[in-house]
Amino acid sequence: MQKKRKLGRGVAVVGAGMSKFGMFKDKDSRDLLVEAYNEMLASLDKGMDPNDIEAIWFGNFSNDFYVKQGHCGPIVADWLGQTPKPVTRTEGACASSTLAFRDGVFAVASGFYDVVLVGGVEEMSKVTTEIATEGLALALDRPYEGMVGFTFPGVFAATANAYMHKYKGSTPDHLKMVSIKSHENAPFNPKAQFPYSVRDMMNRRIERAKKKGQPIPTWKDEWDYLHDLSANPMVAWPLQVMDCCPISDGASFVLLAAEEIAKNFTDTPIHVIGIGQGSGRPLHTKDDLTYFEANRNAAKEAYGLAGIEPKDVQFSEVHDCFSIAEIIHMEDLGFFKPGEGYKAVEQGLTKRGGPMPINTSGGLKSKGHPVGATGTAQMVEVFKQLRGEAGGRQIPNKNLRIGGSHNLGGTGGTCTFCIFERR
Amino acid sequence: MEERPFSVISFNQFLNEEKLMGSRCKKCEVLYTPPRPICLKCFGEEMEWVELKGKGKLATFTSINVGPPWMVEQGYDRTHPYCSAVVDLDEGTRIDTRLEGVDASKPETIKIGMPLTVEFLHRGEGENMQTTLAFKPA
């Protein structure tokens, strides 16, 4: 029998900020982390003396590969004026910064530190799509999955095909509904890489064709646009470009404080009530190709610590690196039963005004996915929603109290789920 | 051959010899493909080599348009996709593989569950030989 786990003392998120996400020729990782840090500072209602920070945990997947800069921890400390305080880099592929967050929470909960800065960065756009794809594929099981040609989109595409084979009603159109839904939230997120609805994106392409004197596309609606393989090319069947998150640069930070001093920073701290993590297997050792074992372990740990059930979570950010992933995560986290996630999307249950809003930030698909920054950027969204500060994308529920952030690394090798509460 | 370690390198050497090999725990008899040195069920480390028949069914697959550099080198690109797959072997285990003998540009014609048989894709010769595991319709 597993013992009941608990945090040594309560930990709260007292500030949270992120840079604009996008593909930036004129900004590097250091610029982005300063931008995110300043946003985090601005979110602290009562401000902060930078001397209060005692240690940093920082997630980065592979700037080593993308911009040939390894060992980014001390650079972060130096750039923020925190040297010689300890800084630890964490790596869990696309879940890198949630691992930083988790370690930071443990450090504060243990009583060792009172105030810890956690965050992440990734700078991916300085290389070609092919090289970026190769960089992401570093997180596959290279000798087995990689050498037979699997890519990140490839593994999720194979997962989508297994899912659609098992759950006969699900189709590639359900995947497109996920992207359409996420993009509906994006215009209200000023940090989003693509702050446009799918219809906006279609209209922008028509305008561009007009301006350039090119043949004007004759799409009737966004569905017509999404089905057009010349506008929305296949990446790995059945996943098209608009099923895949973009290549992005960005950074994010959250500030953690022991609950007993949280009010020194803000009157509205957001309490960390659940933390879960799990590990997963490569394709050939998975028992079932239609879910992620690591997700289910992360969910079990997080709900166990929080002492709540899936129905108590009112909204969540989930790791929609690919459209199919959002559907499966919602099932693994218990928001919907296995095989019913696609129906929930079809019924609009996961829209911002629906009973279970998912990815109000626009998700990775439209907000962008600088992999090392994503985990703590998801927490920026949960922080804003719970404090009623999400502007035009605020969930229309006056009693918003509990939200989740789910992060996946690799092809499900590292998954995390964190639960936050406003008291 | 029984002397070889239960490793990635051994698995690839066997592919060069056109053998698809797995390991079986001597204590609890669980079979693993690819081979592994520690049993997931009993943590035992007494393994033996098993040669697989190379027959199975398609568990899942995809047709990939944007591949890694080693696939691009082999001539695959956005207009010439290739298929990667997972196969359920007759012996009850799974393996990741290339899928050959199908039309990767018409993935809707490829059916999960279809029977497959093993094929070994060699590149280079002698010490430079590299072999990729593939399956094709039986």
Number of helices of chain B: 2
Strand order of the largest sheet of chain A: 3-2-4-7-1-8-11-10-9
Distance between the termini of chain A: 32 Å
Low-confidence stretches of chain B: none
Largest sheet of chain A: 9 strands, mixed
Measured on Cα atoms, how large is the radius of gyration of chain B?
16 Å
Low-confidence stretches of chain A: none
Main sheet of chain B, how many strands, which sense, barrel? 5 strands, mixed, barrel
User: From the alpha-carbon coordinates, what is the Rg of chain A to the nearest angstrom?
Assistant: 20 Å
> Which percent bin holds the helix content of chain B?
under 10%
Strand order of the largest sheet of chain B: 4-5-6-8-7
Strand-and-helix sequence of chain B, N→C? HEEEEHEEEE
Number of strands of chain A: 11
Task: Tell me the structural class of chain B.
Answer: mainly beta
Mean pLDDT of chain B: 96
Count of DSSP H/I helices of chain A: 15
- What is the assembly state of the chains in this entry? heterodimer
* pLDDT averaged residue by residue of chain A: 97
Of all chain pairs, the largest interface belongs to:
A-B, 37 and 39 residues
How widely separated are the two ends of chain B? 28 Å
The helix-and-strand class of chain A reads alpha/beta
Structure description:
- The complex is a heterodimer of chains A (423) and B (138).
- With 423 residues, chain A is α/β, with parallel strands linked by helices.
- In chain A, a hairpin with a 4-residue loop joins β10 and β11.
- The mean pLDDT of chain A is 97.
- Chain B is mostly beta strands.
- In chain B, 9% of the residues lie in helices and 38% in strands.
- Chain B is built from two helices and eight strands.
- A five-stranded mixed barrel of chain B has the order 4-5-6-8-7. A three-stranded antiparallel beta sheet of chain B has the order 2-1-3.
- In chain B, β7 and β8 form a beta hairpin.
- Chain B is globular.
- The model of chain B has no long low-confidence stretch (mean pLDDT 96).
- Chains A and B meet through α5, α6, α7 and β5 of A and α1, β4, α2, β5 and β6 of B.
